[in-house]
Amino acid sequence: MIKNRVTPGRVIRTVLPAELADVVALHARARATYYPDGVPQDGTDWTEAWRGALTRPDGRVLCLVEAGRMVGLASFRTPEGVPADEVKLFQFHVDPGHWRRGVGTALHAACVEEWQGDGRRTAVLDVHVDNRRAQGFYRRQGWVPEPAGPGDHHRRMRLVLPGE
């Protein structure tokens, strides 16, 4: 488990349950940027979804805090039915006002460090097909897209974690 990672002006740490409102707000701001016709109302209660992610004993939610403000989030765990050495990145968001400032890169590096420390060998994620900016970010971090099926709204990507 990663300890708080501190660099000048930044801290990467585990999100506290008391920060739920900050998490939900950052998620909403980030998500709004990649739906060209507006965020779909699919019935998901994001407050409850994030509450679950924050309290799961088998998952982690990391955040990057800059100048006292949460500006990045990453939520991951190993879902049931997949190999124990695989981890899934369920949510990864950077506040749009902090794009292109190294927030995502630093947060991603902290995730990879934790996954390697936990003995993970691969990571997977699903990214919205319209979110080209995120797909480009993941490719730069070494993620490889898997073939998409017809009608898929998300693209699966895979990262083989560097060996130690």
Polypeptide structure, described:
The structure is a single chain. A hairpin with an 8-residue loop joins strand 7 and strand 8. The chain is an alpha+beta fold. An 8-stranded mixed sheet has the order 1-2-3-4-5-6-8-7, sandwiched between helices. It is built from 4 helices and 8 strands, in the order E-E-H-H-E-E-E-H-E-H-E-E. It has a single domain, classed as Gcn5-related N-acetyltransferase (GNAT) (Aminopeptidase, 3-Layer(aba) Sandwich). Keywords: Acyltransferase, Transferase. Pfam families: Acetyltransf_1. It comes from Streptomyces indiaensis.
What is the mean pLDDT?
Answer: 89
Which architecture per CATH? 3-Layer(aba) Sandwich
Shape: globular
The fold-level CATH name is: Aminopeptidase
Low-confidence stretches: none
The count of helical stretches stands at 4
Largest sheet strand order: 1-2-3-4-5-6-8-7
- End-to-end separation in angstroms reads 16 Å
Helix content: 25-40%
Number of domain modules: 1
Which H/E pattern describes the elements? EEHHEEEHEHEE
Summarize it.
InterPro entries: Acyl_CoA_acyltransferase, Bact_Acetyltransf, GNAT_dom. With about 160 residues, the protein is of the alpha+beta class.
Question: How do the helices and strands line up, and which of them pair or pack?
Answer:
Layout: E1 5-7, E2 10-14, H1 20-31, H2 46-55, E3 59-66, E4 69-77, E5 86-94, H3 103-117, E6 122-128, H4 132-140, E7 144-145, E8 154-160
Parallel strand pairs: 5-6
Antiparallel strand pairs: 1-2, 2-3, 3-4, 4-5, 6-8, 7-8
Helix pairs in contact: 1-2
